[in-house]
Amino acid sequence: MSQQNNSLVSTEAILKNAFAAAVAVADPQVIVPQYLATIFPGGQEPKGKCLVVGAGKASASMASALEVYAKSHWPKTKIEGVVLTRYGHSSPTSHIKIVEAGHPVPDQAGMDGAKEVLALAKQLQAGDVLIALVSGGGSSLLTLPVVGISIEDMRKTTEALLRSGAPIEEMNVVRKHLSAILGGNLARVAIACGARVEALLISDVTGDSPADIASGPCAADYSTYLDALNILEKYRLGSDVIPVSVLNHLKQGLAGEIPETLKDVDLVNAQVANHVIATAYKSLEAAADYVRDQGYEPIILGDTITGEAQDVGINQAQLAREYFDKATKSLALISGGECTVTIPAGLKGRGGRCSEYLLSLLAASSDLPNIAALAADTDGIDGSEKNAGAWFDVAVRESAKSQGVKPGDYLAGHDCYGFFAQLDALVETGPTLTNVNDFRIILLNK
Q: Are residues 10 and 32 in the same domain?
């Protein structure tokens, strides 16, 4: 489509269609069968028992896709297992049990489901196959603390880390070292039984490292107990907010009194493979292809943009200004990565990192003519409410002015949901059943 024809499609539609394209390319129903055909080529069926376990916002959909594939390609294979997903993210299955549980703060349902996952893995025998279906959100959902740490202790630790503003990678370093499953411990159990492990991973983390995706239940871990303790110290999380049982366990690990997480040396001669089947960058490319057809020149800024959401919004407003000054045609700046929002004590806040980034961008770009933008989480849920994110264009900005709805007031109160809700500018998709991190797009119309 030519540049002049992009006027036939509204700016709002272009923003939302670009987001839809980003989500669609990470659809488990499409990508899981493709990778299973590669892992088990030429009509090959898994040998022995096929145990399917997993966790994450996309994992139930992955399990559903695997069952459909197995029915037509593995007629002799008996499929069984348990997969955990967030409440409201289930998908229909016949043989694989789906457990819905709490996220981002773990609950008893998640702990019970994780116990079942570990118990089934311990029943594997030599020659059996463990297929792990893992996606973002798995760290919380697979919460099975080691002996001596209660689910309440894990909940308090997770809440303290969330409020501290620690990025997800650092949060997961701590959680790995408190878990009986994360940090490669699930693979460790299967290896001890002589089983083969094939993990399919949908990445929601920067860098797409298997060790970071859902805290790497089947991957070698690069972090240590010392790293976990240093992170707590970095964010000044002491015994006033972190349970004593957690601190004592980490200190015992540091002293060498309990084993470390799975390391590369543990995988020598082991049949363990981690396959990253969807990434944020592939989704950014899909969105770029779409906007190019709408007459925009896409510029992918990268999928590893992190930092405080309000700071990233300000930075990208300046970046948009620089690009706009040089541009001869309409541009689309596309990026991914996971921002953070640090909530001061005593303030609840409403919304999430995508909405907060977007409101910061709107506030910092009032001088830019014809700017429009959208930011949304590809899993369909941005933070504390039910929206995936939000969007704005010139009309939304003018509506805010006419109603006296001031961005600065809502940014100060971390109530970005409230701002965009008043202007009917929320992005609401419901659970998408996939998760490849946050998606951001800025349209600069010349």
A: no
Rounded Cα gap, residues 40 and 121, in angstroms: 21
**Cα angle: 333, vertex 331, 307; to 5 degrees:** 15
- Tally of domains in the chain: 2
Please tell me whether residues 256 and 110 are part of one structural domain. yes
Q: How far apart are CA 368 and CA 262, in angstroms?
A: 50
Residues 270 and 373 in one domain: no
What one-letter code names the amino acid at 73? H
The boundaries of the domain holding residue 354 are 3-23+281-444
pLDDT in tens, 274-332: 999 999 999 999 999 999 999 999 999 999 999 999 999 999 999 999 999 999 999 99
* Structure tokens given for 33: 């069968």
**CATH assignment at residue 128:** 3.40.50.10180
The sheet that has 50-55: what strands, in order across it? 96-101, 79-86, 50-55, 129-135, 196-202, 272-278
Structure tokens that stand for 241 in this block: 């907010």
**336-350: per-residue pLDDT in tens?**
998 999 888 888 889
Q: pTM, whole model, 2 decimals?
A: 0.85
Same domain, 416 and 300: yes
Instruction: Give yes or no: residues 251 and 361 share one domain.
Output: no
User: What are the Cα distances from residue 340, in Å, to 46, 109, 362, 385, 412?
Assistant: 41, 27, 18, 16, 15
Residue 407: which of 356, 373, 350 has the closest Cα?
356
Question: Pairing mode, if any, of strands 129-135 and 297-302?
Answer: unpaired
Cα separation of 188 and 195, whole Å?
Answer: 10
8 and 40 belong to one structural domain: no
Beta bridge partners of 276: 201
How many CB atoms lie under 10 A from the CB of residue 169? 18
Parallel/antiparallel/unpaired status of strands 196-202 and 129-135: parallel
Compute the distance between CA of residue 110 and CA of residue 183 in angstroms, rounded to an integer.
17
Half-sphere exposure of 221 (CA within 13 A, CB side): 31
- Gyration radius from the chain CA atoms: 22
Tell me how crowded residue 125 is: count the other CB atoms within 10 A of its CB.
10
Q: What are 196's strand-pairing partners?
A: 129
Q: Please, are residues 215 and 183 in contact by the beta-carbon 8 Å criterion?
A: yes
Which tokens is 406 given?
Answer: 């001031």
